[in-house]
Fold:
Amino acid sequence: MSARGVSLLHRAIVLGAATCTSVAVLVAQPAAARLDSAAMTSATVGTLLASASAGDSIAQLRTVSPALHAKLGEMRLRLSRAALHPLPLQSVATGRATFGVVLRRSGVTPNGVELAALDTLARLMEEEFSGLLRPLIGRDSTTQLLTPVDAFIAAMRRQSMAASREKLQRFERKYGPGAPVRNLAEVGLNYLAQWAPGFAPNAEGWPSRAELIVSYVPTYLIVPSGDVKAGAATVAEVGARFYLWKEGWGRRLLRPGYVSFGAVLAGERDGAMQSPFAGASRFGGFVGWGNAKVAVIGGRHARVLVTRQVQLVPWVF
Amino acid sequence: MTWTAQRKQWRGNRAVLLVHGIGNAAPGDYAIIADTVRDTIGADGSPVAVYQLYYDQVNDWFTSKNQLGALLTEATRILATRIDDPELGETLAELVGDVLWPVLLADARAAVREAYLLQLKRIVDDGVSAGIPARDQRLSIICHSLGCFHTYEALHHAALFPSHLLQPAAHGVRFENVIFMASPVQLIRTIADAMGNLVPNKRWLYTVQGDTLSIPRQAKLMGGEVLSVNNWVSITGNLDPVGGYFFRRRADWAYMKVPGETVAIVQSQDALDISTKAQLVDCFRACIREREPPKITPKDPHCWESYVNSHATQLRSWLT
Structure:
């Protein structure tokens, strides 16, 4: 570090210490080539503000870059509520991902304006400080000064990794082993559905819950009741399946990975492998709770049917 | 089993991600490429963390890809028409067609991209855990074939969406090198354009966006922009149709040319001893398998290992 850099950094430390004692901790440590994990963990909103002030002073932004100086000042003003300053940046990042649950426990919750200001301040420092400060105070001191920014971004990145894992789990629930297997007609129908709202993944890459069903199901069983005897029944199903993303769901009977509902069409006669279009058609509906499905056929020959979601012939039914 | 990103302990400030191409790669496959890269660029004694992205487990969830028959046939037909060579057209279209299916399934594209982004976030986080701030990490990607398409898509998405914390300006994540080997990105762009409205969720298919292919970038709040990649390298062979060469003839509609790219190399593949179109067709016909990705061997112009070995010296100079 040059003599001028040392002098500037010292001035900035004094300035920063006047506004936040944590900056003294930040700069009291010897210059380290690497990030200090303890400083990362203990970084707070106050530390970030102090680093912003220090960087502003060292780079003499008031004269070198008045626009950046003004923007930093604006963000610092938006974050001037004293109660925010002791908040650990890791808690702020986690709190945002959990809709403030973690922060509410601490009794202080940044509002939307403050969160946006925090994002903008960290972004301005990441984008501008490195290039401005390294020639003045060197790489190590710059790293030290930007530690709160690194702590904040790293904490948010870990939340983002959790979100990515969740997305992949959802894709796996919808398409992976154990998911209902589509027949050829459903492959075609769901391909076309990708153009309909709510069926394609969204801009952030979250999969859609919905899937269309059009299926020939020869595996229903008739529930005996009164004159109706047990036996097989065949229906055509048209409906939709909705995947349940809730944690802990997807592997058990009581907590299945999806529900389904729709209309059924049966032919005139009961029995397995019948044509649902033969003779006088009978109409009804079905609901599915995971693999378990119940259908009701109305009309003169009303039936209650049960079955399990299964594909007997790959890609056919 | 849920897909997990690879985790490594950094001993230096460098990391390389290897992204394979068409094939059914499982963890442990392409170890020879990882060893070669580690030996080549670690020769200066400075350690490098080598990651490999195995995304075929995610691909396998989308078994319906095998039922895209009519659509893939249409894509392959367009491809054969474009190749416009009675001797080469059909066979090369069949071979190259295997890189087209992700274009036709929006969910498959999004899932592989998410796995890719999760791996990138894991790499950066491993570096931060080792005490290297993202802005000081020396990150490189070496990708091959279909892996180039996924790389192009993931890097553009990462630069556009702040939610991944991988933006070049706002989050300091910049790749020192991205090395595309036998990239089908331009070929996919051309065929996807030709298929028009048959391609779903085109708005988020970065390969077809803009007037030309581009290097991902981010505008800074105070003006100016930052590129995601410092050294954008493209390598292909003059007998490799996936990379845009049809028997030593470059097809502009299939060859990836990105404005601003740093290095573009077309490797002579004369050493493979393929002197006629019939020999090239025979070579590729031998690797095409029914309902499975082609089996590429070192004798094929598309072999990744051969590309890495042929360019070991350049890799060393770029990555060290």
The longest helix of chain A spans residues 112-145. The first strand of chain A starts at residue 210 and ends at 222.
